[in-house]
Design a protein that fits this description.
The complex is a heterodimer. Chain A is mainly β. Chain A has no helices and eleven strands. In chain B, 0% of the residues lie in helices and 57% in strands. The N and C termini of chain B lie far apart (36 Å). Classes of the chains: A mainly beta, B mainly beta. The interface between A and B is medium-sized, with 26 and 25 residues.
Chain lengths: 115, 113
């Protein structure tokens, strides 16, 4: 089955700096890569996702890049703010159109943005 | 707003007890999932269901069972709870279409003494 590795497990940055979280996946058939943010005591919430037919996607201060050849994808947060502090999860899945759709999550990255 | 609702939000119980966690959704989604979250281990899939008659085991289904009572309801049961099932449990839903994001409930914090 799919295996998703996420690094680093913890990341501390100063407010205004950029943060990058990287994930690798093992199943070359995976074609959907969402990122979730989980604030303390809250539910995971989707912040951005990318499909395998594109290499990069941006939404204001966050962006995701995908390298299918190397089987890795990354989350980039620019101009970080204290409210960006949370645990971030990457995930990967494949969908053949049948019953195979399920997400495999990385173990998470605790991002701390220091004022 | 359409949402995913989990009950109870917190539960403390004893080893050997039977426990049911419930999930209901008003999103109109076909697919429903149960995950377990442990510190440092991320989210691990317990069971998933693509419709009322389609239920599948995830990566850590041992010790758990599920029931899809209706399109909007998906319950997780621990037949005889043990302490290492202490965790935060999340229900999630998604549309049936290709590559759809999953939407999570607020979670149930379960402690087994």
């Amino acid at each position: 089955g799919e295996n998703v590795e996420q690094h680093p497990s913890t990341l501390s940055v100063q407010e205004g700096d950029s943060a990058v979280i990287k994930c690798t996946y093992s199943d070359s058939a995976s074609n959907y890569f969402p990122w979730y943010k989980q604030e303390l005591g809250k539910r995971p919430q989707l912040i951005i996702d990318i499909r395998s037919n594109v290499g990069e996607k941006k939404d204001q201060r966050i962006a995701v890049t995908l390298n299918k050849t190397a089987k890795h994808f990354s989350l980039h947060i620019t101009e970080t703010q204290p409210e960006d502090s949370a645990v971030y999860f990457c995930a990967a899945s494949r969908d053949s159109g049948g019953s195979n759709y399920k997400l495999t999550f990385g173990k998470g990255t605790l991002l701390t943005v220091n004022p | 707003d359409a949402d995913v609702t989990q009950t109870p939000r917190n539960r403390i119980t004893k080893t050997g007890k039977r426990i049911m966690l419930e999930c209901s959704q008003t999103k109109g989604h076909d697919r429903m999932y149960w995950y377990r979250q442990d510190p440092g281990l991320g989210l691990r899939l317990i069971y998933y269901s693509f419709d009322v008659k389609d239920i599948n085991k995830g990566e850590i289904s041992d010790g758990y069972s599920v029931s899809r009572q209706a399109q909007a309801k998906f319950s997780l049961s621990l037949e005889s709870a043990i302490p290492n099932q202490t965790a935060l449990y999340f229900c999630a839903t998604s549309k049936k279409s290709v590559n759809q994001p999953q939407h999570f409930g607020d979670g149930t914090r379960l402690s087994i003494l």
